[in-house]
Amino acid sequence: MHVLTGEEVDFFQEHGYLKLRAVYSPSEVEELSHELERLMVEWAEETPGWRGPWREAYMTADESAKARLSAMHELQNYSSAYLRAVVNERLTGAIADLIGPNVELHHTTLHAKAPDMGTPFPMHQDYPFYEHQGPAYVDAIAHIDAATEENGCLKFLGGSHRAGPLEHIRGEHSSPHLPTERYRLEDAVSVPADAGDVVLFSYLTVHGSAPNRTNRWRRLVRFGYRDPDNVQTTGQGLGRDGIMVRGQKQNHERVVRDGL
Ligand SMILES: O=C(O)CCC(=O)C(=O)O
Description:
- The protein is of the alpha+beta class.
- The chain has a single domain, classed as Jelly Rolls (Sandwich), CATH 2.60.120.
- It is 23% helix and 28% strand.
- A hairpin with a 2-residue loop joins strand 9 and strand 10.
């Protein structure tokens, strides 16, 4: 049973991203939103956001000094509403249509851009943050608030995933990002979304987002899903088992050794 149409799968394969509308009902969004208010007070960290010279290309010095991001990981460990969100049948079915029948949750991460200057994100792939051996990795961004041009919606360079992993600027004082003059936010396709929508993208698709210049929070939660046979080599969550949200994770070594 497929969740995505053939056209949706083709769109994802060509462009590297896909929006799923109304994955969560209004009452589910209300619960997720309410829970997030609690998680942000009790568990999240407020920081200036990602570091690096790219900030000068995206913000004035005053804006950069003011910009704030509230973030935390593994929300499903702190709230059963988020545990239910990551196992949502339509969402995990869509992921299975893109990477195969076996789907493992790798991580979840909150990005809440603060009102009156919420930190932007430079153009980047998610790959350098959690490198794996193959392409079978999809990030799903659950929109807890509507995301617009004004509050910093996601923006993608369509088709960029097909180039494979790219060399990122990294350093002690710099989060991995792509050169700002070559990878421009202005050249990317905006994908505004309503609360309850989920935007899927390959961890190889180049993306970023502008500052939140409104007077309200812009809250998104990223769920990272992989084929359990896609072995991680470095980065966030390395060596940690995730819950299987579809299908099975096999112990190939033992299957071969014991002829199972
Ligand atoms: O929250 C955003 O605006 C950007 C999100 C992003 O770049 C990511 O999740 O990799």
